[in-house]
Design a protein that fits this description.
about 15% strand, about 35% helix, Aspartate Aminotransferase, domain 1, 15 strands, Aspartate Aminotransferase, domain 2, 7-stranded mixed sheet, globular, disordered N terminus, 2 domains, 14 helices, alpha/beta
């Protein structure tokens, strides 16, 4: 494959004299028409769409354009997928090449798949050397569960409050989704425990610091008394995405790694949302020097092309043989080309450092918002995973859901495409974004928070 150098400064730089550009109050008439026609048949909509039903037509770099000609600064990377910007030339060319050459040959070996697994071996930490490819995050999570059961001979799983792992039965049973469609209870053998949240801690030390030892002690008590001593794995996100960009204390994952080793429990790190350069590391877990036993990678892995990966440490590679690990679409040449091109872009454009820088300057700007707006209870950022938590009262920390919806809508009307979650405002701008565009997006959020305070407070 020809390797073309693309300059982030030239390709993804946003002309802030032109972007955002709202020429028709959104959602405009064409958006409303398309939305009405589509939803006559298509009912499974996210909260993003329900709150602001625009119809998008195209995307380039950090900009999305709707069917009415409005141009939005993208602070969501699609939905955490287009971390390298929409339609990055190198990724698009890689997919097009194999769309015209070889779309699928089941799980037979291809040169592009070989190149991808060798790239993964080179960039991932420790002895993560076994790989299997899939086409969605939830499918990868389900495969990770099967691998841990095969590797240990055990069945039960431990996961954490407010984590999100997907929408099939096993992955839903790991998370916080509640729906009668999945039955009145989680799948048998799935258990949930609290994880440290610095803004809403359960246990504190005398000095006011979060007491991570208490969490580990609770896990030990819970596993002893609430399970049948058949635990295969402890599954969690490195940073909670759906839960509100919740950052763990720096000592939590090293302690959890030691605990799992002592109890012969495998540690599974779901990096579908947080991984692949978004936080300034290939894997978010690398920030804490921890190598998990099983990792799921997705969303940004193919920069929007549906490709995901389960990676396992070398001792557990053979477990793939016993779980019927192949899939119809996983590892097809287009998917492998997208993932390999994405990895090459991250290296060639030094985007791990770029993501780190964006997170640092964003956090400083958000701290100013917190100082100036009473409804901002907390702000957090690691790389291009960012969050703002809105509260009715800083003392009680009561969630302010109504404000969250209004801030989301007010900022969208100004030309910012982003992610709502009740009182939690979530942001994940592409890691190719320039500083000025980042600040522009944060300014729009700042304005929307101010307008919401005037309306509700």
């Amino acid at each position: 494959m020809q390797e073309t150098k693309f300059s982030t400064s030239e390709w993804a730089k946003v002309d802030l004299t032109q972007i955002p550009s709202v020429i028709t109050p959104p959602p405009g008439p064409k958006s409303r028409e398309y939305h009405a026609r589509c939803t006559a048949h298509f009912k499974g909509l996210s909260s993003q769409v329900k709150l602001f039903p625009v119809a998008f037509e195209s995307g380039e770099g950090c900009v999305l354009t709707d069917v009415d000609g409005n141009k939005y600064l993208d602070f969501s990377s699609g939905i955490y997928v287009a971390g390298l910007g929409h339609c990055h030339p190198k990724v698009s060319e890689a997919v097009a090449k194999y769309a015209n050459k070889l779309m699928n040959c089941h799980d037979f070996t291809t040169p592009i798949k070989t190149a991808l697994v060798e790239k993964l071996d080179a960039v991932l930490p420790g002895d993560l050397k076994g790989f299997q490819f899939y086409d969605s995050g939830t499918t990868a999570v389900e495969a990770g569960l099967r691998v841990m059961r095969a590797a240990t001979g055990h069945q039960e799983m431990i996961s954490c409050f407010y984590d999100f792992h997907g929408k099939t039965y096993g992955s839903v049973s790991l998370g916080q989704i509640r729906s009668s469609a999945y039955g009145p209870a989680r799948a048998p053998g799935f258990h949930m425990v609290p994880r440290p949240d610095a803004y809403r801690p359960m246990w504190l030390k005398d000095d006011g610091a979060i007491d991570t030892d208490k969490y580990i002690e609770f896990y030990d008590t819970y596993i002893d008394r609430a399970t049948v001593h058949d635990v295969a794995g402890f599954v969690l996100e490195p940073i909670q995405g759906w839960g509100g960009t919740i950052m763990p204390p720096d000592d939590f994952f090293p302690k959890l790694r030691r605990y799992c080793d002592e109890k012969h429990i495998l540690l599974m790190d779901d990096e579908v949302l947080a991984g692949w350069g978004r936080t300034g590391k290939w894997l978010c877990m690398e920030h804490w020097g921890v190598v998990p036993d099983v990792v799921t990678i997705g969303k940004g892995f193919g920069n929007g092309f549906p490709v995901t990966c389960v990676a396992v440490r070398e001792p557990y590679m053979e477990s793939f043989q016993s779980i019927s690990a192949s899939s119809s679409y996983g590892g097809n040449p287009m998917a492998c080309a997208a993932a390999l091109a994405s990895a090459e872009v991250i290296e060639e454009e030094n985007l791990l450092a770029r993501a780190t820088h964006l997170g640092e300057i964003a956090l400083k700007r958000m701290e100013r918002m917190k100082a100036e707006h009473p409804i901002v209870g907390d702000v957090r950022a690691k790389g291009c995973l960012m969050g703002i938590e809105l509260v009715k009262d800083r003392a009680t920390k009561e969630p302010f859901d109504e404000a969250g919806k209004l801030v989301y809508q007010n900022a969208f009307r100004k030309g910012l495409a982003w992610i709502p979650a009740g009182h939690l405002l979530r942001m994940s701008p592409p890691i190719v974004m320039d500083d000025e565009a980042l600040f522009k997006g944060l300014d729009l959020i700042d304005e929307a928070i101010g307008e919401t305070e005037k309306e509700l407070c």
